[in-house]
From TrEMBL:
It comes from the Bacteria. Residues 1-21 form the signal peptide. Keywords: Signal. This is DUF4397 domain-containing protein.
Length: 259
């Protein structure tokens, strides 16, 4: 009996280790997001313990600077970062690379960031793990409840690991999967009345890290997103921002239709 027990234990460890089988030899994901009008993806979303569903679909062609893209929309107001980021934005495929144009909503409350990108690379089938796919840096100034706010930002997409097989949290298994990590770094300074120099209330921090897993010929199958920030000491000055914020999200593919 003891011998059988050890055999069962070894078998279970083997199954767990192979549930997400990393393949460092290269990506076999040449069609990360099938871009045909009418394609749709339904995601089970868990945001800080609250569950819901997002329905993302390709609505139509749209032309930007004489180039044709596919316009993405959601059936209802999206709650997950991935669907929020793609909603009302445009994608195109160039030799397997997926390029995004439009205004990206981070979903982080109270910090208004204008992330309007053009052909931001969100996927590259030939990128090796750890390589940078695309970066977008900038800053914007705006008034927020009487305060002049300056926001510096850096949006980065980085190639992740390759998997010959990958299982989502609900146990669904997919072959030929490649990950991408999207990261947003922010620095926020405010000008306070009667204070001559801007005050940095948010030192440079990675406020959003989202890891997305793409299955060949299917699309995004699983996203894990963490959002968080911690303001510096404001010395009793009341600002129109929460002192801190933290949120964990997961989005898993439930239903899809690919043409």
């Amino acid at each position: 009996m003891r011998k059988n027990h050890y055999l069962l234990l070894l078998l279970s460890l083997f199954i767990i280790s192979c549930s997400n089988d990393d393949d460092s030899n290269g990506s076999q994901v040449n069609n990360a997001i099938p871009l045909s009008t009418g394609n749709y993806w339904v995601y089970d979303v868990n945001v800080a313990g609250t569950t819901g569903r997002d329905s993302l679909y390709i609505a139509n062609d749209t032309v930007i600077n004489a180039i044709t893209y596919k316009k993405f929309k959601t059936k209802d107001f999206p709650i997950g970062f991935y669907s929020i980021a793609l909603n009302n934005n445009a994608l195109r495929n160039v030799d397997g690379k997926i390029l995004l144009s439009g205004g990206i909503d981070t979903g982080i409350p109270e910090i208004p960031v204008d992330l309007t990108v053009s052909d931001f690379v969100v996927f590259d089938p030939n990128a090796v793990t750890g390589s940078i796919l695309s970066t977008f840096n900038g800053q914007n100034e705006q008034e927020l409840e009487g305060f002049d706010v300056n926001i510096s930002y850096a949006l980065t997409a980085e190639a992740g690991d390759n998997y010959t097989s990958y299982s989502t949290p609900d146990g669904q298994s997919y072959n030929n999967v490649k990950a991408v990590e999207v990261k947003l770094s922010l620095k926020v300074a405010v000008t306070i009345p009667d204070v001559p120099i801007p005050f940095t209330i948010l030192p440079t921090q990675d406020v959003l890290i989202s890891t997305q897993y793409y299955a060949n010929g299917i699309g995004m199958i699983h996203t894990v997103t963490d959002m968080q920030y911690e303001l510096a000491d404001t010395f009793g000055i009341e600002l129109p921002l929460p002192q801190s914020f933290e949120e964990h999200q997961e989005e898993a593919l439930s239903v899809y239709n690919i043409q």
